[in-house]
Amino acid sequence: MSGGPDCRTVRRVLGRGRTVIVLVALAVLALPGVADAWKRTRTLMPGVTYTKEVRWVYGGPLVTHVIRGPRHGGLHKLRPMLSDGTVLGRRTVSSMQRRTSRSATAAGVNGDFFNLDIGHPSGMFMRDGVLSTRPESSRSSLGIAFDGTLRIRRIRFDASWAVPGFPERRLHELNRPLKEAGVALFTPDWGGATPRFRRARDVVLAGLPRTVANGSFTARVVGVRRGGGTVVPRRGGVLHARGAWRRVLLGEARVGRDVTLHLGLSPRWPDVADAIGGGPALVRRGRPIFHAGEGFTRSHLAFRHPRTAVGQTAGGRTILVAVDGRARASMGVRIWELALELMRLGAVRAISLDGGGSTTIAFNGQVLNRPSDGSERPVAEGLMIFYYGIYAPKPRFAVFSPNGDGVADVETLRAKVVRPSRVDLRLVRPNGRIGWRYRGLVGRGTITRRLERASMREGRWRWVVHAREEQRGYESRMRRSFVVNKTLGFLRLSKTRMRVVRGRGGRLDVSVALTRRSRVAITVRNSAGRRIRRIAREMAPGTVGWRWDGRRGSGSVVRSGRYTVHVRARNRLGTVGLVRAVRVVRR
Fold first, then answer.
1. Nearby residues of 433 by Cβ (< 8 Å), 6 or more positions away
2. Which terminus of the chain faces fewer neighbouring Cβ atoms within 10 Å, N or C?
3. What is the pLDDT of residues 74-115, one digit of tens each?
4. What are the backbone dihedrals phi and psi of residue 339, each rounded to the nearest 5 degrees, phi first?
């Protein structure tokens, strides 16, 4: 396959010195590898799907993970979250989801770039209108409007502090260490003590309310500390000064005086309550952005890396994307290639988030991609689709066989409710009749149904759950299914350790109970999963036996090691299998 598309740039001059850049060859059909894709899609929860796509594109293999969710609103909310509830906290994306599992079911990705040493985000973080960190004006930020529209633009931090009778002063930082002389405000969202600098000065404030964006607040000075290291009061804050600003702060913000603080955003973003940093912008009005002109290095933009992004379709649906990289199976993408990917997926607006080893996409506490570090990296933030309706996890077993052999004998069904709701839970038999039902008002929690009766009818059963919220009236429903198949059971091996002799082999007796006529395959595999020996034929009900002599299909005696015996039976109910392990010792 070829590399990326030919992205020539044509310049057309219109009027006096005005230049319009027309980008050529950007149609989705021109993207290489689309027709050769392998992909699999499954439903994670009502309205939310996950697709894994593997294809050859841009001159190499690429694995893309995509979560699609409804427009923000109702039972689905797209929201950022600080990993540990504080600016300094760091957690993995999956652990963030497990931490909030009692209040919602979550699917999401990692968030903004962050400082690897102490963990604070590089850009803005705002939730419910409360500003926890300031925006980075050289990079785009992502805002989530009240109507669910994603706003992507550069935002400036326009903040100040003032003491009555003195001029208004600039506030340089919010919950972030100063890089040079200035004044920073630390709030309880910081999650620790102020940075320690020998010549720093801290002014402790009491009575500081939540720092709502574009709001003005008044707090009283209750103390002064030298050298930093001040613990931020729960209902207060700390003004932290370095350089020449120390004298200004200490001269004006004296103990007993009031300080007025203003945390402004420019533009104001009046319809945005939740926001997160990121960048660069990828798609605008349905067209990819090749040179956003944001504050990123060439190595970040021009080289292939694992990437994370979020976009929105013309219909308002949310797209969360993670691209694997730095591996043989997936080489990653450049920023402009990521823009093409988001356009191909139907995004009319999109923004990149942190990438590299941070790239993670997860659902309900389970990682869906392969992070390039080999395991999840603890990150500063996550961007999640939170679902507040009833949720039914997958049944414990897709195929359930309550025959008493100790394998897949007990099925467990669950329904999670996170808000007080009237629920209707039904277990439907293969013939369509209701085998069990529960209706009533429940609060937050999980309802569990345990199945283990040997008399359960064979066939496909359905677990159907429905909930109606008491307060808002939102309705939600979900359906899961499993198969009861008792065809195969009681797999027995005559020994767990078999001795084989070179030239003579050994002896291992295999037996299994079969309840109906089936096509049965018995396979021996080595520790690498390679097939060593196999028989397959139609078999009648009863006890099926077979003897393995420790040889391969070619007749040679196997080596020492761990082997597994697999038995599969196929009939009108489907395919069911059992497996047992045996240790082979060759003399």
1. none
2. C
3. 999 999 999 989 999 999 999 999 999 999 999 999 999 999
4. -60, -40
